[in-house]
Design brief:
The complex is a heterotrimer of chains A (411), B (359) and C (306).
Chain A (H helix, E strand, L loop, with lengths): L1 H20 L8 E7 L5 H19 L1 E7 L2 H13 L7 E5 H9 L3 E2 L20 E2 L2 E2 L2 E6 L1 E6 L17 H15 L4 E2 L8 H11 L10 H10 L17 H6 L4 E5 H10 L4 E5 L2 E2 L2 E5 L1 E8 L5 H11 L2 H11 L7 H7 L6 H12 L1 E3 L9 H19 L4 H13 L3
Parallel strand pairs in A: 1-2, 1-3, 9-10, 13-15
Antiparallel strand pairs in A: 3-14, 4-14, 5-6, 7-14, 8-10, 8-11, 12-13
Chain B lengths: L4 H34 L3 H6 L10 E8 L4 E8 L4 E4 L5 E2 L2 H15 L5 H14 L1 E7 L4 H8 L4 H32 L5 H13 L2 H14 L6 H26 L2 H9 L4 H30 L2 H6 L6 H9 L6 H26 L9
Antiparallel strand pairs in B: 1-2, 1-5, 2-3, 2-4
Helix pairs in contact in B: 1-14, 3-4, 5-14, 6-9, 6-11, 6-13, 7-9, 9-11, 10-11, 11-14, 13-14
Chain C lengths: L7 H37 L15 H7 L2 H32 L6 H13 L2 H12 L4 H8 L16 H28 L4 H9 L4 H29 L3 H7 L7 H12 L2 H29 L6 H4 L1
Helix pairs in contact in C: 2-12, 3-7, 3-9, 4-7, 5-10, 7-9, 8-9, 9-12, 11-12
């Protein structure tokens, strides 16, 4: 009876595994559980495990359990752990855009930042980490916006333009020239809603002297005027881009102003095929939104003191420099560390990022000021569809209306 | 019909063969490309146009002298049939640069070249202006990634397996019992009950996901992958009730009655007559339960920490694979393989569908 | 143990209790794991905030849904996807099942192939179609290799409008689901006795008449089950849409719940998402009851089944 045999296996195997799964752990060194959205590349994790954690583990007789998990499930797991009373995570690394949710839901504890006198968190990154005078997150892995150009676009570059010192009008004219010459647009942004379009355009508005995320200031209008000229400069499939490094890598798109990690992904895959540069400049210089991630101690964590120690260890300027050199792709969001790195960085991506940081108008993400940052993002996504792709001209009425929608979400 | 019978039969056979082949090709077509991608390097995946139908097993490189100190590397692009620059804009002949290039060629070309080999190629290019060579491409490199960094992958497979088997057990037994009741008995509230079972599948899971897992957490089943099966069964039981009900209805009750006449009791009649007849249907239930449990990630991510299931391991190793679809392809094939293997095993029961049932 | 030995009265009682006893485990299971979260979601949709935090009973969340233009777009898109995809998938799957319902060489391999699309994880399906539908993707590559397209003339699959996008989703879904439907229908057909169809033909019925008068009525239970599960699943299609087009681009009901609950997250949006969930459950229920009524499955007596 094959069927009966199958049923027996079905019954016994899980029973055995259930029993096994329930076994208690013996006494191992303390396990500090760190759940992070950052350092997802295998090489980066290897570097942390081999070069960064051992010193800390030895000094504190513990084991750092480092796991990678995206922001959304991380937040959901925090909710689950809090509500079921089984908090097993000590430290989380969240993105700035989610920090407000962590703090508001009371999932994280304030950090004793006053005692850490040897480090200054860079101003551009501090917007999201605190609420009501308390600092909950210690920033790590800062990012800004860069320009990435496929060398195939070089023949269309307007005369007298230096790709390393682009101005927005140059970028727009260049993109328009490519579209005319090639018969179809070759510029990319994240056309899929709810992604990073707001930051791409927000940085540009900053370079014209507007505030973030104001959409209808006179300065922003100036930028919109320019952007609407790009109606046909974007690729036909721009609305399907979730991550611009994909079209940049496969040649569908030739130019983009994007998050440094996105630019970096494409650039690293073949450095000789691309030009990497800081984001274009406007009348007020280079503008960029700065994003960051941050360490925080989970409320109810099994080892809160050790968790604080760990964060202190990881955000020491010397350590931040070491991690930045070893992992690549991000700027350390600590003034002393940026100072130390100076112009000595070999990594092209970090070097360009630091240029933006030092010379640019940089703003953080004021997610905490709005009841729903996702809904604010959508306003930008809608404006992109309506004014740029559909109409190709600025409508003051539309933008005023859009600003009202943003203001309505303000707390 | 005026068509001669043998001719008609032959035509019928050909039509069937054609149809089956078309359907099989339609199913295979996208899968084939997914598999091809999983064997390709980053360069092949993104820079070749049109994409090769089959990955090349070798890569052709060319080094060109730019100046007495610098060299550049080119790669042969099959799609465009030309040499294209690959890697850094220029290569200096020193250890540090060679090391970096070696890493680059592993990551983006899936070729292994040691720094000293690279330096010797550079030397040759410097001597004669240019130098061409081929390198063996590793076809398994994308797959190795899942087992290199994460040592617990084998454990995770075990966790997933036990979760899936338990899900089958719970959902087929509980679902099958209720299904049998709906098929064989007339009772008060039958329609309402049957509809409310359906309602379980109607309520959007997103809205109840967290409170549902919280219940499990409070019961102390946190981080026990087998406990996950309780969550997976919620959706599965409802489905199995409906499928088994329709299967039991299809099995004539007269067979059971006949057995009763010959002296079997009701239980015996069920186990000896009805159940064997229902095996293909139950196998289908088991298969769907297995597949849905095997592939689930969201709840498993929330509910496990030290004992992740295999999809969670794949998910985590893919987070770093931004814009690298060849790695995602390898990961998803690695994840799908056990589920496909399971269907291969259970196929024999499903197969009883063909050629009638032996009573 | 031995039912035949128990006295008649008790046995009759047992017989009457039997269906309830058989259903009890399922009911208990749902009472523990499912009922509470659902009641929670339903009551939450009528509250402005949690009761503990001074929330009040309100209909505002529902008002928010009904004043949102996205809701109506989602409703229409969902309706189109459900009607077109379910009928298309059913007709094709049924036709395939009918034609393939005989043993042929390689039938074992074929069945195995048919199961594969269902067993792929979501990430695989997403990666497959994203890399396939991209302008430089494999679908265009394959067309070039086959000589259908020249190298310069690629089809921008993802640059279409709303209608083209819906069509793509329906096709992608069909690729995954038709084999599944086919298997359920085949598993129902195994119960059919070939003699009956044969008898129909002997008495002069045409193929169509045999199908219409004998095969379909006999398969009715299986068809109803396959259809109802499919309708419910089709209303809940969203992940593949999000993987190909992202959120808010091709709004459907389920996706809008996720947008409000997981993306906009704020209390007001979360509660709007709960209200939307209740509405979706209501819509699915109405659709299923309507379908079951129309197909005559509700209130059906046993003789119809066997």
């Amino acid at each position: 009876m094959k069927f009966r045999a199958l049923m027996t296996v079905l019954l016994i195997l899980p029973a055995l595994l259930f029993a096994n799964g329930g076994a208690e752990e013996g006494d191992e060194p303390t396990r500090l559980v760190v759940s992070s959205r950052l350092y997802s590349q295998p090489g980066e994790q290897q570097f942390l495990i081999d070069e960064v954690f051992p010193a800390f583990e030895e000094a504190n007789n513990c084991m750092v359990m480092f796991e990678i998990i995206e922001d959304e499930p991380l937040l959901k797991r925090a909710q689950f752990q809090k509500e079921s009373g089984r908090v097993t995570t000590d430290v989380v690394v969240s993105h700035a855009g989610q920090m407000a949710n962590w703090i508001r839901n009371d999932y994280v504890m304030p950090l004793p930042v006053d005692q850490w006198t040897d480090r200054t968190f860079s101003k551009a990154f501090t917007e999201s980490i605190s609420m009501n005078g308390q600092t909950y997150f210690a920033p790590v892995g800062g990012d800004v916006y860069l320009t990435l150009i496929n060398k195939k676009a070089m023949p269309y570059m307007p005369t007298g333009v230096d790709p390393q010192d682009l101005r927005w009008e140059d970028y727009v004219n260049w993109a328009a020239a490519v579209a005319e010459g090639e018969g179809e647009g070759k510029a990319a942004v994240t056309g899929i809603p709810q992604k990073s379009l707001i930051y791409m355009y927000g940085g540009m508005f900053l370079s014209y002297g507007s505030d973030f995320p104001v959409i209808n200031s006179p300065e922003a209008m100036e930028a919109w005027e320019l952007l609407t000229k790009m109606q046909y400069a974007y690729t036909p499939t721009v609305n399907s881009y979730d991550n611009v490094s994909v079209p940049m890598k496969n040649g569908e798109a030739w130019m983009t102003v994007a998050h440094m990690v996105r630019c970096g992904d494409a650039y690293q895959s073949n450095p000789s095929a691309y030009i990497l540069a800081p984001a274009p400049a406007g009348p007020k210089g280079i503008g960029s939104i700065a994003g960051t991630s941050g360490f925080a101690v989970v409320k109810g964590a099994p080892h809160p003191e050790l968790a604080v120690k760990f964060i202190e260890y990881m955000t020491e300027p010397a350590m931040a420099v070491k991690v930045a050199r070893g992992t690549g792709g991000f700027i350390p969001p600590i003034d002393e560390a940026i100072e130390q790195l100076g112009d000595s960085v070999q990594d092209e991506i970090i070097a360009k990022g630091i240029m933006v940081m030092k010379n640019g108008v940089v703003s953080g993400v004021p997610g905490g000021d709005y009841s729903s940052w996702g809904a604010v993002k959508q306003v930008y996504d809608d404006a992109f569809q309506e004014l740029i792709l559909k109409k190709g001209e600025v409508s003051t009425a539309y933008l005023n209306d859009a600003q009202d929608r943003i203001d309505a979400l303000k707390k | 019909m005026t068509i001669p019978r043998p001719l008609f039969q032959a035509a019928q056979k050909t039509t069937l063969a054609l149809l089956v082949t078309t359907v099989a090709l339609t199913i295979l077509f996208p899968l084939f490309f997914l598999f091809t991608f999983s064997l390709m390097s980053d360069y092949e995946t993104y820079s070749e146009w049109p994409k090769p139908l089959w990955p090349h097993s070798q890569v052709r490189y060319r080094m060109e002298k730019i100046s007495p100190q610098t060299t550049r590397l080119l790669i042969w692009n099959h799609g465009q049939s030309q040499w294209q620059p690959f890697g850094p804009e220029h290569i200096e002949a020193n250890e540090e640069v060679a090391k970096k290039l070696s890493r680059f060629l592993t990551n983006y070309g899936n070729t292994t070249l040691s720094p000293s080999e690279i330096l010797s190629h550079v030397q040759k290019a410097q001597n004669s202006g240019f130098h061409e060579f081929t390198a063996q491409k590793s076809l398994s490199q994308n797959y190795q990634r899942f087992f290199r960094l994460y040592s617990g992958a084998a454990d995770a497979v075990l966790h997933s397996l036990s979760t899936a088997l338990l899900t089958i057990l719970i959902s087929v037994v509980i679902g099958g019992m209720a299904g049998y009741a709906f098929a064989r008995y007339v009772f008060k509230g039958k329609d309402v009950l049957k509809l409310s079972v359906l309602f379980v599948r109607m309520f959007p899971p997103v809205a109840i996901a967290i409170p549902m897992v919280v219940i499990l957490g409070r019961m102390g089943l946190y981080d026990r992958p087998a406990g996950l099966s309780l969550i997976y069964s919620v959706n599965q039981i409802a489905m199995n009730i409906w499928i088994t009900a329709s299967i039991f209805m299809g099995i004539p009750e007269s067979l059971e009655e006949a057995a009763l006449i010959f002296g079997a009791n009701k239980r015996g009649a069920f186990f000896r007559i009805t159940l064997p007849l229902a095996v293909p249907g139950l196998a289908a239930c088991a298969m769907y339960s297995f597949i849905s449990s095997w592939n689930e990630v969201i709840n498993a991510l929330i509910l496990t920490q030290f004992r992740p299931t295999f999809p969670v391991v794949v998910y985590k190793s893919l987070l770093g694979a931004n814009a690298q679809v060849h790695l995602i392809a390898a990961g998803s094939i690695a994840q799908a393989a056990p589920a496909i293997l399971f269907t291969l095993i259970i196929r024999r029961y499903l197969l009883q569908m063909w050629g009638g049932v032996k009573v | 143990m031995n039912a035949s030995k128990t006295p008649g009265l008790i046995r009759e009682r047992q017989e009457r209790m039997a269906p309830y006893l058989l259903i009890a485990p399922a009911v208990i299971y749902y009472a523990i794991f499912w009922l509470f979260p659902v009641l929670n979601a339903i009551s939450g949709s009528f509250l402005s905030a949690p009761l503990k935090q001074g929330g009040e009973w309100t209909l505002k969340n529902y008002a928010a849904v009904f004043t949102d233009s996205m809701f109506y777009r989602a409703l229409i898109n969902t309706a189109i996807i459900v009607v077109v995809s379910v009928s298309l998938e059913f007709v094709l799957a049924f036709a395939l099942a009918l034609l393939i319902n005989k043993k042929f060489r390689g039938s074992s391999l074929f069945l195995f192939l048919a199961i594969i699309p269902m067993s792929l994880p979501a990430v695989a399906v997403g990666a497959m179609w994203n890399s396939g539908l991209a302008t430089n993707g494999w679908l265009n590559s394959a067309l070039v290799h086959l000589g259908i397209l020249g190298e310069a003339e690629k089809i921008p699959f993802l640059a279409g409008g709303q209608g083209a996008n819906i069509l793509l989703i329906i096709l992608v879904d069909a690729w995954q689901v038709i084999p599944f439907m086919m298997i359920i229908l085949l598993s129902g057909m195994q119960g059919l006795k070939p003699e009956m169809a044969e008898a129909g033909r002997v008495f002069g019925g045409t193929r169509w008449q045999v199908l219409h008068k004998i095969t379909i009525p006999m398969l009715k239970q299986t068809i109803v089950t396959a259809m109802i599960l499919r309708i419910i699943a089709a209303i809940q299609i969203w992940l593949i849409i999000v993987m190909i087009f992202g959120f808010n681009r091709l709004p459907v009901l389920m996706e809008q719940i996720v947008v409000n609950v997981d993306l906009y997250t704020a209390e007001t949006f979360f509660r709007k998402g709960m209200a939307l969930s209740v509405l979706v459950a209501l819509i699915v229920s109405l659709a299923s009851v309507a379908y079951l009524k129309a197909s005559g499955a509700l209130g059906a007596k046993k003789e119809e089944a066997s």
